[in-house]
Amino acid sequence: MIQTSKDLLNIVLSISIVWITVFLCWALYYIIRTLHDLRSVSKNLRHTSTIFIDFLDELKDKLIIAAASTKAISTAVDQLVCHVTQVFGTKKPQRRQKTKNT
To answer: Is the pTM of this model over 0.70?
Structure first.
């Protein structure tokens, strides 16, 4: 079976190669699993960001509509106040002018 030191060296080398192969397969398996998990996380993040961007677009549209209607309501209230003041003859209070004290 083992007759020379070269035979022993070959047996040790073959066992070492088997263990290195097992270790590399194990390491590759965990690297592949990690990359798969990263892919699924990035896919979920992309989906969530798409939903968030859609939400922001809808919010922007609603705020534009609200701003336009607020301006229209403000103009209508201003005209109503002007009309009421003309009907009842009330005057707007005048502002007092600032005087400088020396």
So the answer is: no
* R_g over Cα of the chain: 41
Distance (Å, whole) CA 85 – CA 93? 12
Residues 6+ apart with CB under 8 A from 60: none
CA 65 to CA 71: how far, in whole Å? 10
47-74 burial: b if 16+ Cβ within 10 Å, else e: eeeeeeeeeeeeeeeeeeeeeeeeeeee
Q: What is the residue whose two structure tokens read 């699993």?
A: 33
The tokens for 22 are: 């097992």
Quote the CA–CA distance of 9 and 20 in Å, as a whole number. 16
Compute CA distances 65 → 16, 57, 62, 73, whole Å: 73, 13, 5, 12
Q: What is the pLDDT of residues 35-82, one digit of tens each?
A: 999 999 999 999 999 999 999 999 999 988 888 888 888 888 888 888
